[in-house]
Structure formats: C-alpha cells, structure tokens
Design brief:
five-stranded mixed beta sheet, elongated
Length: 196
C-alpha cells in the first residue's frame, strides 16, 4: 500500500512537471509568432487607391457619404451579417473601437439583407450610435467576398488598409497599418525583415 502511494505521488509530480514544461514551451512559441494582421483577399481596390465616393442611405433613412475627403476624419466600413457567429462576437469589439477612436474615426456597419435583422442585431449589441448601411453595391465596390470584412478609408478617401477581420487583433492591425503608412502588418514585417 505504501509503495502504491509513493508511485502515485511520483506520477502526479512528474505529470505536474511535464505540464509546466509544456506550458513554458507554448509561451515561448507564442512569443516567436509574428503578429498577424487582417488577411487581405483578392480585392477590387488596393491600399493607396482612392475609393470612389458613394452616397448610401442608412437604415434610419439618412444619406451617408462613403469615401471622399472627410475633413480630418477616417472612416471604417465593417461588413457583417446577423447570421455570422464571428461577426456577432466582434460587434462588442467594434463598439469599443468606435468609442475609443471617436476623435478621428467614423465607423459604419455595412451589409446586405433584411433591415429588421440588422436593426435587431444592432439593438442586441448596443450599436445604436453606429450608422447601418444595407447596400450590395457597397460590398461589391470593395470586393467583399467573406465576412467579417473591414475597410479603413483615410481622411483623403484613400483605402488605408482592408481585410478579413476575425479577431480584435485583426481589427487593430488595420489601425496600426494606417498609422505606419503600410498596406498591412504583413507588409510592414516584410519590409522590416528586408532592412535587417
């Protein structure tokens, strides 16, 4: 009986040490992985291009200008769908980003589909302050093929950055790319590696 207790405790301690070593290795690997920004797909527009200005109507019935010069303010178009679980998980992040960056950024929730579904999604996720635009033409203009997708337009109406956005980090990478003057975080890392 004493021998079995000693063997059991030895196995438990050994497992604990192995788990600690594995956790350390995961931490080391995590530090070595470069930050991944929003994934850019084959798009209709490219970063640096001036987006064709477009006037659309919000679900509240108000006209809204997409693109064009914006008097010192950028515009983020966040394409989402009420049926998309990833989109729903990012809506609180979008709401937080809209509030945190409100001094320089106007956020627009975009999609196409039933107005009632988008209105319900906005109320459930407390997006009352964000304009909602339902326009298939807007999605086609920016080459949106998968959701959630975001396009960041700078103050001059140029596409600063864009891509598939599946996490908070992807959304923030669009802001970071604009700030650094690069098309994407991947481009920034590639340039930095070439300079090194």
């Amino acid at each position: 009986m004493l021998t079995s207790q000693i063997l059991l405790w030895t196995a438990v301690i050994l497992q604990g040490l192995l788990i600690a070593a594995l956790a350390r290795q995961v931490g080391i690997l995590h530090e070595r992985i470069a930050p991944a920004g929003a994934l850019t797909l084959h798009q209709t527009v490219a970063p640096g291009e001036v987006a064709s200005p477009m006037t659309v109507v919000t679900t509240a019935g108000q006209p809204l200008e997409i693109g064009g010069k914006r008097q010192g303010r950028s515009q983020l178009l966040f394409f989402a769908s009420p049926d998309c679980p990833v989109c729903k998980s990012l809506l609180p992040v979008l709401r937080g980003a809209a509030r945190a960056e409100s001094n320089w950024l106007d956020v627009v929730l975009a999609g196409d589909g039933a107005k009632a579904a988008y209105t319900h999604m906005a109320s459930v996720h407390d997006l009352g302050e964000l304009p909602i635009v339902l326009s298939e033409a807007l999605g086609r203009a920016f080459g949106v093929s998968k959701l959630p997708y975001a396009v960041l337009l700078d103050e001059e109406g140029r596409v600063a950055s864009l891509g598939l956005v599946n996490s908070r980090e992807h959304l923030e990478s669009l802001f970071e790319a604009k700030e650094r003057g690069v098309a994407s975080i991947q481009d920034f890392l590639a340039r930095r590696n070439q300079e090194a």
